Amino acid sequence: MFGWIKGSKKADPPALDENGLKMVIDIRDITKTYEMGELSLQVLKGVSLQVKQGEFVSIMGPSGSGKSTLMNILGALDQPTSGEYFLDGEDVSKLSEADLARVRNKKIGFVFQNFNLLRRTSAVRQVELPLIYGGTSGRTKKAKAALESVGLGQRIDHLPSELSGGQQQRVAIARALVTEPAMILADEPTGNLDSRSGTEVMQIFQQLNRVQGNTIVFVTHDPWIARHTNRVVMLRDGKVVADRLVANPLVAGEAERPSEAEELEGVFQEAYYGGKKEEYN
Ligand SMILES: Nc1ncnc2c1ncn2[C@@H]1O[C@H](COP(=O)(O)OP(=O)(O)O)[C@@H](O)[C@H]1O
Ligand SMILES: [Mg+2]
Fold it and tell me: Ligand 2 mean position to 220 CA, how many Å?
């Protein structure tokens, strides 16, 4: 934890920023190269990113730009090839597999696109699992509270097959937050959901972020979903090409998503070379 004890040349990052907020993610010049026999593929080409406590960030970018690779590193599921990663103040870029597992269980809640729920296990037992691994006491009570916080207090004994897609993803979110992690990471959590269920999940994320102050970083392909977060980081070819605050984040469920026809209309309008649309017909 303390770089100077190990005699490291670089100073540790400040634990708090000028407003007294903790830096939850601090990665510096991360690279990731996959070696496949003779071939090597550099997927991340020097990514730096700082995320403070309480932020709600979406990561966007074309398919293959390295979003999942970055999320796996942020989630301590994988190690970078080079660069540094301070997670909640702890240098995790050189930890052993056993220490990474401890960090994952204590500090990170991960939500996956396909929910990753056990088929024959009730909601409350699913949510207890990370607590069993962590050796926590009072597991059932905590699991019930987590399910209540995602609006599933009445569904704790249901199996995944008895729940809608949106509800299943909410169980997965409860499982991610029951250990009170420093942050929640989600790789395309709304990718497999219809738009109504996607809105349901966004409502939960916004509530966790705004009311409980949870730090959330997630990947989405969908600009409409990204507009519900506070900051958008754009990846392209393994580099951050934009990192901006969202001017007026949408509140999930309040605004109506424009229809595809309306969105296309915008695209068509941009294709006119000046003058009004009517003048072209
Ligand atoms: N384990 C792996 N071994 C080799 N190549 C990989 C591996 N994981 C991802 N890749 C490659 O890295 C690139 C980025 O993948 P990924 O991070 O999944 O992108 P994204 O999530 O943005 O679509 C892709 O070209 C993909 O094929
Ligand atoms: Mg991906």
Answer: 9
Domains of the chain: 23-280 (3.40.50.300)
Determine which residue's CA is closest to atom 9 belonging to ligand 1. 69
Does the CB atom of residue 43 touch ligand 1 within 6 A?
yes
CA 207, CA 194: separation in Å to the nearest integer?
Answer: 20
User: Which ligand is the nearest neighbour of the Cα of 77?
Assistant: 1
Per-residue pLDDT of 210-243, as tens digits, reads 998 999 999 998 889 999 999 999 999 999 999 9
Give the tens place of pLDDT for each residue, 44-53. 999 999 999 9
Query: Over the stretch 245-257, which tens digit does the pLDDT of each residue have?
Result: 999 899 998 988 8
Neighbours of 255 (CB within 10 A): 12
Using DSSP's 3-state secondary structure scheme, residue 40 falls into: strand
Q: Are 159 and 152 in contact (CB under 8 A)?
A: no
For ligand 1, atom 7: residue with the closest CA: 34
Q: Which two tokens stand for residue 127?
A: 């949510």
Q: How many A from CA of 115 to the centre of ligand 2?
A: 15
Q: Is the CB of 66 under 6 A from ligand 1?
A: yes
**Cβ-based neighbour number of residue 5 at 10 Å:** 7
Distance CA(252)–CA(231), nearest Å, equals: 15
Sign of the four-CA dihedral 31, 216, 88, 15: positive
The bound ligand whose nearest atom lies closest to the alpha carbon of 60 is: 1
Mutate which of 41, 63, 222, 239 for ligand 1 pocket (most atoms within 8 A of beta carbon): 41
Going edge to edge, which strands form the sheet with 183-187? 108-111, 183-187, 216-219, 56-60, 231-236, 239-245
**Other beta carbons less than 10 A from residue 53's beta carbon:** 19
